[in-house]
Amino acid sequence: MPFTKLEATLPINSTKTNMEEDKNEWKKQENKPFSNKGNSEKTPSNFLRYSGMAMQMLGTILVFTYAGYKLDQWQMNKTPVWTLVLSLTSIAASLYLLIRSMPKVK
After folding, report:
1. pTM of the shown model
2. CA-to-CA distance for 15 and 13, rounded, in angstroms?
3. For residues 69 and 86, what is the distance between their CA atoms, to the nearest angstrom?
4. Mean pLDDT, rounded, of the chain
C-alpha cells in the first residue's frame, strides 16, 4: 500500500477548564524573561547595550585606521605615519567615549 493514511495521536484536553489552564500557562510563559537561570530582567538589554558599544568602538577604529592607510598610500609614505596616528587617536577616542557612557558608581 503506497498511500497509507497516517494519523497522529495527541492528547487533547476536551474540557473547558483544561483549555483555560493551558491558556493561562501560555500567558505565564510570555511574561518570563529570556533566560530561566534567575537573572534579572535587565540582562538582555545590558547585553545589547554593551555589544552595541563594542561594535561602535570597532567601527570607529576600523574607519580611522583605513583612512590613515589610504592617506599613507596617497602620500606614498615609506613609514605608515597616518595609519599609526589615526589608529591611536581612534583608540583613545573610543575609550574616552566608552568611559563617559558608563554608569556612575554611587
Report:
1. 0.56
2. 6
3. 9
4. 79
